[in-house]
Design goal:
By secondary structure, this protein is an alpha/beta fold. It contains eleven helices and eleven strands. Strand 6 and strand 7 form a beta hairpin. It starts with 14 loop residues before the first helix and ends with a helix. Bound molecules: pyridoxal-5'-phosphate (PLP).
Length: 366
C-alpha cells in the first residue's frame, strides 16, 4: 500500500461543480473582484462569526496587512511562538518591527504563557498567537496577559479553519485573525489566497484599502497600498469547498482519534495533549520521538510519506537575532507529521499505525 502525505488532486470533492463554475467565469471574463469574491467574504465571515472579512492574495499578506493596521510605533517588538512558519516572523520584519520569539509548550506546541510573561516589556506592541497544526492556542490566558499591558493580539489562523475555543471560532478572540487558503491548507484554493477577519470597523476599513493600492474604488487612493487581491476563480472554488467544510473537520478528527488510540503507548512517542472543550481542525497530526529520522526512513521504505513541521525553530535562523528558547530547543529534530486528510481512508491510517508499531518493536526493540 502507498500512503501519500496528502493528495491535492483528490482533495477536490466537488470537481464537477468547480469545473462548471470556472467555465462560466472564463466565458464571462470574470477574473478580478466581483460577486464571487464578495460572496466569499460574506460566507467566510459568517463561518468564523466575525463582523468583517477582507480577502487578500495569501496568508503572508494577511499577516503583513494585519500588523500594519495596528499602527505600532517604530522600534516596537512583536512576540510570536518560535515554532511556526516563517511568514509569521516575516510579517513583523517587513513592517519594520522586531520579532521576539517565545517558547512553546511541549504538550500542545502552542505559546508558553510563562515565557510570554517574561518576554513582555515596555517595547511590546503586539503578540501573534499561532493556532499551529489546527490546535487552538490558549487565547483566553494570552488575552488576560495582554489586556493588562494594552498589547494588541493577532491570531495566525493559517492552519486553523474551523478550530474553536469552546463554541467560538479562532480568529475573533484577539484584534485580528488571519487565514491562508494555500492549496495544502484544510480549506485550500486553486493557488494562493488569504483573509483578514476582524470585528473592528477601523481595521476593516484599513485592510480593505491596503489590499488594493489604498483605494476602495478606482482612483480613490488614500494612501500607498499594494495589490493583494483574492482571484475571482479562487474565491469561487473556496465558496464551493466551504459549504462542505464541516465534513473535513469531522474526517480529520476521526483519523486523529485512530492515531490517539493506537499510538498511545508505542515506543517513546509523545502525543498531543487535547483540550476537550476546544475543536481541533487537525491540519497536521504531529508526534514526537527521539527516533524521528529512523522512523521517517522506515515509513518511506513502507511507502508512507511523512513531513516535518518544521525542521528548525525560527530562532535557529541567525538573521532573526538571538533569542532564549528552552522547551523548543532541538524540537525540529524530534517532530514528525503523519498523513492526515479527508481523503485518507481508515485502511490507510491503520496501515500507518501498523508500520509505526512494527518500527518500534522490530527495529528499535523498544
Ligand atoms: C502558520 C502559518 N502562517 C502563515 C502562513 C502563510 O500563508 P501563505 O502561504 O498563504 O502566505 C502559513 C502558510 O504556510 C502558515 O502555516
Amino acid at each position: 500500500m502507498k500512503v501519500k502525505f496528502t493528495n491535492l488532486f483528490q482533495l477536490i470533492s466537488d470537481k464537477p461543480k468547480i469545473i462548471k463554475k470556472i467555465n462560466y467565469l472564463i466565458k464571462n471574463s470574470k477574473f478580478v473582484g466581483g460577486k464571487e469574491v464578495e460572496d466569499f467574504e460574506k460566507n467566510f465571515s459568517n463561518f468564523v462569526k466575525a463582523k468583517y472579512c477582507v480577502s487578500v492574495a495569501n496568508g503572508t499578506d494577511a499577516l503583513e496587512i494585519a500588523i500594519a493596521s495596528l499602527n505600532l510605533k517604530e522600534n516596537k517588538e512583536v512576540i510570536l511562538p518560535v515554532n511556526t512558519w516563517i511568514s509569521t516572523a516575516e510579517a513583523i520584519v517587513s513592517n519594520g518591527l522586531k520579532p521576539i520569539f517565545c517558547d512553546v509548550n511541549l504538550s500542545d506546541y502552542s505559546i508558553c504563557t510563562e515565557d510570554l510573561k517574561k518576554k513582555i516589556n515596555k517595547k511590546t506592541g503586539a503578540i501573534i498567537a499561532v493556532h499551529l497544526y489546527g490546535n487552538p492556542s490558549n487565547l483566553k490566558e494570552i488575552k488576560k496577559i495582554a489586556k493588562k499591558k494594552n498589547i494588541k493580539i493577532v491570531e495566525d489562523c493559517a492552519q486553523a479553519h474551523g478550530s474553536k475555543i469552546g463554541k467560538d471560532h479562532v480568529g475573533i478572540f484577539g484584534d485580528i485573525g488571519t487565514f491562508s487558503f494555500f492549496p495544502g491548507k484544510n480549506l485550500g484554493g486553486f493557488g494562493d489566497g488569504g483573509a483578514i477577519l476582524t470585528n473592528s470597523k477601523e481595521i476593516y476599513e484599513y485592510a480593505l484599502r491596503a489590499r488594493n493600492h489604498g483605494a476602495k474604488i478606482k482612483y480613490d487612493h488614500k494612501f500607498s497600498g499594494r495589490n493583494s487581491r483574492l482571484d475571482t476563480i479562487n474565491a469561487a472554488v473556496l465558496n464551493i469547498k466551504l459549504k462542505k467544510y464541516s465534513n473535513v473537520i469531522k474526517t480529520r478528527n476521526k483519523i486523529a482519534n485512530v492515531y490517539f488510540k493506537h499510538l498511545k503507548n508505542v515506543g517513546d512517542i509523545k502525543l498531543f495533549k487535547l483540550n476537550k472543550k476546544n475543536t481541533h481542525s487537525f491540519h497536521q497530526f504531529v508526534i514526537r520521538t527521539k527516533y524521528r529520522n529512523k522512523l521517517a526512513q522506515s515509513l518511506i521504505k513502507n511507502n508512507i510519506q511523512t513531513m516535518i513541521h518544521y525542521p528548525y525553530m525560527l530562532n535557529e535562523l541567525k538573521f532573526f537575532g538571538k533569542h532564549k528558547i528552552v522547551n523548543a530547543k532541538n524540537l525540529g529534530k524530534k517532530i514528525l507529521s503523519l498523513p492526515i486528510s479527508e481523503e485518507h481512508s481508515l485502511k490507510e491510517i491503520n496501515y500507518v499505525v501498523k508500520k509505526v508499531k512494527t518500527f518500534f518493536k522490530k527495529e528499535i526493540k523498544y
